[in-house]
Automatic annotation (TrEMBL), chains A, B:
Primary role: Catalyzes the conversion of 1-hydroxy-2-methyl-2-(E)-butenyl 4-diphosphate (HMBPP) into a mixture of isopentenyl diphosphate (IPP) and dimethylallyl diphosphate (DMAPP). Acts in the terminal step of the DOXP/MEP pathway for isoprenoid precursor biosynthesis.
Name of this protein: 4-hydroxy-3-methylbut-2-enyl diphosphate reductase
Gene: ispH
Superkingdom, natural source: Bacteria
Manner of cofactor binding, per the entry note: Binds 1 [4Fe-4S] cluster per subunit.
Key words of the record: 4Fe-4S, Iron, Iron-sulfur, Isoprene biosynthesis, Metal-binding, Oxidoreductase
Cited Gene3D superfamilies: 3.40.50.11270, 4-hydroxy-3-methylbut-2-enyl diphosphate reductase, catalytic domain
Catalytic activity: isopentenyl diphosphate + 2 oxidized [2Fe-2S]-[ferredoxin] + H2O = (2E)-4-hydroxy-3-methylbut-2-enyl diphosphate + 2 reduced [2Fe-2S]-[ferredoxin] + 2 H(+); dimethylallyl diphosphate + 2 oxidized [2Fe-2S]-[ferredoxin] + H2O = (2E)-4-hydroxy-3-methylbut-2-enyl diphosphate + 2 reduced [2Fe-2S]-[ferredoxin] + 2 H(+)
Annotated source species: Candidatus Marinarcus aquaticus
Lineage: Bacteria, Pseudomonadati, Campylobacterota, Epsilonproteobacteria, Campylobacterales
Catalytic residues (positions): 122
Binding site for (2E)-4-hydroxy-3-methylbut-2-enyl diphosphate: 36, 70, 120, 159, 215-217, 259
Family note: Belongs to the IspH family.
Length: 275, 275
């Protein structure tokens, strides 16, 4: 069976980059879980002895500590650097950007609005770079209780948030303030995987979508593929493949959810190529 | 008959201010029509000998020249100042603001987008302050043909434009660019007159709306008043008042369209108070 991979699938750029960094520092530890994927964290532990610290206090002198993709709060980073630990920064560049924007806009006396989940490590990190008035909102109605210090507002968004809600929020601010400086920090990775799956599913005889059956972005990919290719199947790993699906077909397209490690995808590809 | 004026009516702040300035410079001339109201321009000519220049070339040494509310292009202002004429600036401060924003944002290497009518004197003036990439759009679809030099866009709007369309345009830009710096330069004057008319029409027995019968903003005021007060009448001047309207009523509310001079309003007020 011929296999064709979607032009974009699986882990995003920032996650892939962080894994490569971790693989190149054997016996290091990450500060907080490197990425939101337990399978992959286990693999890094088993294959590269990459450990995990959950508390700054646990870090010892001469440790090599990798900063997670979501970044960490500014003061935690400062403390880490003072510990004589070797600090390797695997913060996604798309997360470093809003951190630096918030820092600069604070210095220029803008009130800062972050659209995101206050409890998410990425947002905690981004927020920590504000040196003045800063607020976090999850939805439009959260604005009702906010009083901004300045009439100049700078806004950033958590990288994985929905653009439509971000626009609703900034529109409200534009109507009420002299200046709203809108930074589009939402990452296109999720949409890129969806667009690529849509395209590929039009070209192939059968589509295999690899990812967690409870993962909302994987289910979304599956439903997009079904629109164009009735022979679309969602599997978690190679063990779920059924040879009968492939009878009388020539080309199999493959995509994967944003939490699916490359090695799981590779195992599936290898298996299908044998059919 | 008791008379109560709306808390906001008639000329906006910038127009009232320009008229006061013109009245205080007898025998001066304005560069272009001071405001968009021929009645008032005639009155300034008759009562204060305030003339009108349409061409820079007509200005003579020692002339006192008043800059119109909409402002003039930067180079025209420069030329005027070099002519040894006394230049009095009656540009509305709400128009000076976008001029200065465009100047500053150009210097900071933002592409500039002006939402407005390219042929309107205000927009011509605002646009002239750009020293780099600048574009004018009237509607969302105009964006299709625009190529911005930078991925940082600063936007301003003509003061009298509709906010809804401005938001549509900036939303489109936010989705496509790293940073959109949105300056809300739309003036609330029109909406303030409408809100004030709405409130007043709920309190009074009869409402008189003074303004041109072809003026869209005056008709809008009349229709708002009719929602709350069935005895609402639109008149152009005191001669159209009908005593029968006021029979058995006690309090008369008054509002006026944005092009209605104060003296026409005053004549109506004086007439009604006699009833």
């Amino acid at each position: 069976m011929k296999v064709k991979l979607a032009s974009s699938y699986g882990f995003c750029f920032g996650v892939k980059r962080a894994i490569k960094i971790a693989e190149s520092y054997e016996n290091s530890s990450t500060m907080g879980p490197l990425i939101h994927n337990q399978n992959e964290i286990n693999r890094l532990k088993n294959d590269y002895n990459v450990g995990l610290y959950n508390e700054l206090g646990d870090v010892k002198e001469n440790d090599t500590v990798i900063i997670r993709t979501h970044g960490i709060p500014k003061n935690d980073l400062k403390e880490l650097k003072q510990k004589d630990a070797k600090v390797i920064n695997a913060t996604c560049p798309f997360v470093t950007t809003p951190q630096q924007i918030v820092k600069k806009m604070s210095q220029e006396q803008y009130s800062i609005l972050i659209f995101g989940d206050e409890e998410h490590p990425e947002v905690k990190g981004v927020k920590s770079y504000a040196t003045d008035d800063v607020h976090v909102v999850q939805q439009l109605s959260d604005l009702n209780t906010i009083h901004f210090k300045y009439d100049k507002i700078a806004t950033v968004a958590q990288t994985t948030k929905k653009k439509e809600i971000y626009l609703d929020i900034v529109n409200h601010l534009i109507l009420k303030n002299k200046e709203v400086r809108v930074f589009n920090t939402i990452c296109d990775a999720t949409f890129e995987n969806q667009d690529a799956a849509r395209e590929l599913s039009k070209e192939v005889d059968i589509m295999i979508v690899i990812g967690g059956k409870n993962s909302s972005n994987t289910k979304q990919l599956h439903s997009i593929c079904l629109e164009n290719c009735a022979n679309s199947y969602l599997i978690e790993n190679k063990n779920e493949l059924d040879n009968n699906w492939f009878t009388n077909h020539e080309i199999c397209g493959i995509t994967a959810g944003a939490s699916t490690p490359d090695w799981i995808i590779q195992e599936v590809v290898d298996e299908i190529q044998k059919i």
